[in-house]
Amino acid sequence: MARKLKSDRLLFLATFVLVCMSVVMVYSASAIVAMQRYEQPYLFLFKQVTWAGLGFVFLALLMRTDYRHYRQPVIIWSAVAVVVLALIAVLFRREINGTRRWFAVAGVGVQPSEFAKMVAVFFTAAVLERRMDRINQVGYALAPIGVLVGVFAGLILLQPDFGTALSLVATVGAMIFVAGLGYRYVVGAALVALPAVAVILMSAEYRRRRLLAFLDPWSDPQGDGFQIIQSLIAVGTGGVSGRGLMAGVQKMFYLPEPHTDFIYAVIAEELGLIGATLIVACFAIIAWRGIHIAMHAPDRFGSLLAVGITTMIVLQAFVNISVVLGLMPTKGIPLPFVSAGGSSLLLNLVAIGILLNVSQQASAKT
User: Fold this and answer.
1) Which of these, 215, 358, 242, 227, lies nearest to 293 by C-alpha position?
2) What is the pLDDT of residues 336-345, one digit of tens each?
3) How many CA atoms lie within 13 A of 218 on its CB side?
4) Minimal CA–CA distance to 347: which of 55, 11, 7?
5) What CA–CA distance (Å, rounded) separates 142 from 210?
6) What is the DSSP-derived secondary structure letter of residue 132?
7) How far apart, in whole angstroms, are the C-alpha atoms of residue 326 and residue 236?
8) 345-360, pLDDT tens digit by residue?
9) 108 φ, ψ to 5°?
10) How many CA atoms are closer than 13 Å to the CA of 319, on its beta-carbon side?
């Protein structure tokens, strides 16, 4: 009789808890905003439940699909072509809040940059699997990755979306480092990247203002420092056990878009330190299990894929929570699995489904 493959239950449980908290907290954070804007208090709740249900369907399918199928060149290059076309097409869409990050497909909003990160992870894993034995021959091993990441990041910067572009580069960088790139190259890349990041930060007025607001939000409490100050008030007033579900104050038109980028502040205010810690604990479990899966994967491709997916999710969570706590300048990066948003939630559940399949294949090997 065929041996039954085992999935990583802790990884699935942590993901499930985050999505369940998302459904509850998106409603709590968005009901008043949705009523005021659309006269439909359950609007964002219905959307989040729909996307969560669809995401878990894809998760169930992908955790039963051998991840090694994705290394086929026809699949990877087709995905690259679709993402490049989508990233170009979105630049011709109507501006929303000064950016062009979204376009509608059959009435559903899609953010191509989210899919670009996932495709970059697959492409990098496939290239490194074949070339990591000569990883320090940079021109041979890393040139294709550098070109792809450069194209993706450049198109994302044009939207403009500096946070997502930096997240993409950092995720791929982590995969290359784990593949065994020599420290001298790592240090050299860091020395080159730091001035480049500084130039990009200073090249746009709104980025300079965000940086100054991060350094001293009270210098402009009604302007650029408003988001950070209101977020810190929400976190600080939550205490240990919080004000209570639905009892938060800052979501009432103090925090801008409380159901998306600043939903962690709403959680901290309404559920207190207990709820905020539960969220962090779930992401810590995802990081732990992701590393465990990478170490026990049956092949290089699976190991690198696990590193990329884990880094992509955990890094985004770290940045979002750091912004809410005033530890980083404000960026428009949602909290994975928790913030309202269809394409982000769907993509992250797809990624977890693939990661669960890597864990299944590892259990088959042992």
Assistant:
1) 358
2) 999 988 788 9
3) 2
4) 55
5) 33
6) G
7) 12
8) 999 999 999 999 999 8
9) -110, 130
10) 23
CA distances from 7 to 166, 216, 359 (A): 32, 47, 6
Alpha-carbon span 159 to 157, nearest angstrom: 5
Query: Residue 312 is encoded by which pair of tokens?
Result: 């992509």
Which of 344, 365, 352 minimizes the C-alpha distance to 101? Answer: 344
Reduce the DSSP state of residue 328 to 3 states and report it. coil
By the 8 A CB rule, do 150 and 181 touch? no
C-alpha 141/C-alpha 366 separation (Å) is: 31
Q: Which residues of 121-243 form beta strands (DSSP E)?
A: none
| Paired strand residues for 99 | 96
In the predicted model, what is the mean pLDDT of the chain?
88
Evaluate the omega torsion of the peptide bond into residue 256 and state whether it is cis, within 30 degrees of 0: no
At CB < 8 A and 24+ separation, what contacts does 363-366 make?
Answer: 363/5, 363/6, 364/3, 364/5, 364/298, 365/296, 365/298, 366/296
Query: b or e along 237-264 (b: 16 or more beta carbons within 10 Å of the residue's beta carbon)?
Result: ebeeebbeeeebebbeebbebbbbbbbb
Per-residue pLDDT of 176-195, as tens digits, reads 999 888 888 888 888 888 88
